[in-house]
Amino acid sequence: MGNARNGRVWMGWLAVLVMATLAAPCLAAPEGGTGGGSFWGTIMAGAGWVGFLIMAVSVAGVALVIYNYMNVSQPKLVPEALLVEVNNLFEEEQYEEALQLCAANESFLAKVIASGLNSMGGGYDAMVSSMNDANVEQTVKQQHLIAWLNLTSAIAPMLGLFGTVHGMIIAFGIIKTQSAPKPSDLALGIEQALITTWLGLIVAIPMVCFYFVFRNRVERISILVGNTVGELTGRFRPQAS
Questions:
Q1: pLDDT per residue as tens digits for the range 27-85
Q2: Do residues 159 and 200 lie in contact, with contact meaning Cβ atoms separated by under 8 Å?
Q3: Residue 232 burial (C-beta neighbours within 10 Å; 0-12, 13-18, 19+)
Q4: Is 241 among the domain residues?
Q5: Which comes out higher in pLDDT, residue 42 or 147?
Q6: SS (H, E, C) 14-60
Q7: Is the pTM of this model over 0.85?
Q8: Separation between Cα atoms, residue 102 and residue 62, nearest integer Å
Q9: Range of the domain at 32
Q10: 104 lies in a domain?
């Protein structure tokens, strides 16, 4: 209960932060103006269309963070209630009922246990091999989900670099066409170059952090599941003569 409550609070603050960040340029801009008098107004006005692409990537990234926070968690992937019930069924040697229970559950743990139970006919070694394969499969599946976060962390700075090059092309184009360009004429391109680079970095840095947080969480859960099913199937290990 405490973890779930903390999770809801965490996601609530994250949602507020994202909404405030996205709404700030609109709220800061004076009526009929471009918003150049405020920090975020200057940022969005100077970033141009590349800046809006970066912001779109940031929205996708936040959605991925929320999705993975809700789904890549120990209570979700290794439900305690399922483990207790399966263990009780194993104690009573009701393996068919345990298989049916796991088949009806979509968690990481259930998939691994079900794989082992389906291989019971082949003996202990077949069960262990099947469970190990299922563990790897479920781990890869979870890693594929969080890999999209890594993609957003790569796209955002690349868009920022694109904006940098685009802005410098604008600035040098002015130098080429004007014999004595004013600093204010060059400022537009240089401003876009700097702002898009900055935007790309502020999106990419937290996404990289979240990616590694979730990746490490998946690895810990994979190890936990391996240890858990090892304890469950230990009773099937052949006794040394």
A1: 444 444 444 456 666 666 667 788 889 889 999 999 999 999 999 999 999 999 999 99
A2: yes
A3: buried
A4: no
A5: 147
A6: HHHHHHHHHHHHHHHCCCCCCCCCCHHHHHHHHHHHHHHHHHHHHHH
A7: no
A8: 32
A9: 2-77+136-236
A10: no
User: Structure tokens of 70?
Assistant: 């809700």
In a domain, 105, yes or no: no
Q: For residue 129, which of 1, 233, 49 has the smallest C-alpha distance?
A: 233
Report yes or no: 192 and 167 within 8 Å, Cβ to Cβ: yes
Task: Spell out a b/e string for 17-50, using b for 16 or more CB atoms within 10 Å of the CB, else e.
Answer: ebeeeeebbeebbeeeeebeebebbbbbbbbbeb
Percent of all residues in the chain with a pLDDT value above 90, rounded to a whole number:
48
- Work out how many domains the chain is built from and give that number: 1
Q: Which residue has the tokens 């609530």?
A: 12
Domain membership of residue 188 (yes or no) is yes
* Cα 195 from chain centroid (whole Å): 25
Mean pLDDT over all residues of the chain?
81
Is the separation of the CB atoms in 194 and 88 below 8 Å?
no
